[in-house]
Amino acid sequence: MLGGYISDLEAGDEFKPVSYVLTAFMASEYAHSVEETCEWYHSPRSPTGRQMRPPTMIHVDKMRILEENCLKERRVSGEKGPDARVHYEYYARQHSPAYVGETLTVSGKITDKYVKRGRTYIDYYLEVRAGDGRLVTTYTDKTLLKYTPEGE
Amino acid sequence: MDNVVASYKVGDVIKGPVRYMTPERIEWYDSGMLSAAKGELAQVGANIHTDDEFARSQGLPAVIADGMIMTNWCSEMMVAHFGMDYLSRGELRTKFIKPVFLDETVSVFAKVLTIEPSGNGGRTYVLDVWCENDKGVKVTDGHARVETGGRTRSAT
Hints:
Chain A has 152 residues and is α+β, with helices and mostly antiparallel strands. Chain A has a single domain, classed as Thiol Ester Dehydrase, Chain A, CATH 3.10.129.10.
C-alpha cells in the first residue's frame, strides 16, 4: 500500500515517479561522502566534458521515491518508521551516464515481499531515465524490513 | 589503461581500497546521502548506523556500517579499472552478507571469472567482487560485468 510506512508496501505496488534536476552539488557531495576522488564526479573534467554522477546514486533515487510514496516514513525529512530496515542487496545495471543539469525521472515498483526465517524482505525494481528518454540505470534491491525476526 | 585492461586474464585478482571503518566514515556516508537527496547540506540523525543505543533497540549488537559504503568502495575499484565502460554499460551486484562494525578493516577485491568477445568488437568481463574484514571473513559478496568497447579509458 502506498502512502503509509515502507513496511506497508506490497508486491505490485507501483510508485508515483519522481523527477529532479541533477546538480553538481548532488554528484560531488555523494562522491565525497565515500572518499571517491574520481574527478569525473566532481567537475566537467571527464572524457565527455560533462560532470556525471556516481552510478551508485541510484540508492539516493530509492530514498527519493520512497519519500514521495511512503508519506508516514520520510527519511530525508527526518520522519522515522517503527522499525529500522537493513539493506541486503544492491544490483545496478548502467545503460548510460547521468550528467549534471539533466532532469532525471525515477520510476519503479515492489516486485516481491516475503518472509524467510521469520524476517520480512521486500524487493524493489527501479529505473532512471534522463529527460531525453535515455535509460540511465535499472536497479533491483532487496531490503530486510526489520532486523529482529518476528516472535523474538 | 587500454593495455592494462587488455592484459587482464581469467583468474587475475584486482585490489580495491583498504579502509578502516570509523564513525566518521559512517557519518560521512549517511549525511552525504541525505545531502544528495535534499540538494543541500544535511546532517544525519540517530539511526542503526550512527547510534549504538538505537542500534541495540533494533536488535543489533552495535552500530553497523551502511552496506552502501562497501558498494561504493567496490564501484570505486570498478571505475578505476574499467572507466567509462563501467559507467556506460557496467553492472555491479553486492550482497551484504555480514555486518561491518566499527574498527574493522575492509579490503575490496575482484577476480576475473570470464572474458568473452562482445558484439561490438570489445570484450565482456565478468568478475567476482567482494569485501573482507581483517580476519579474512567475507562481509560483502557480489559480481560485476563490464562490456568494453573500442577503447577503455581509466578514471585515474
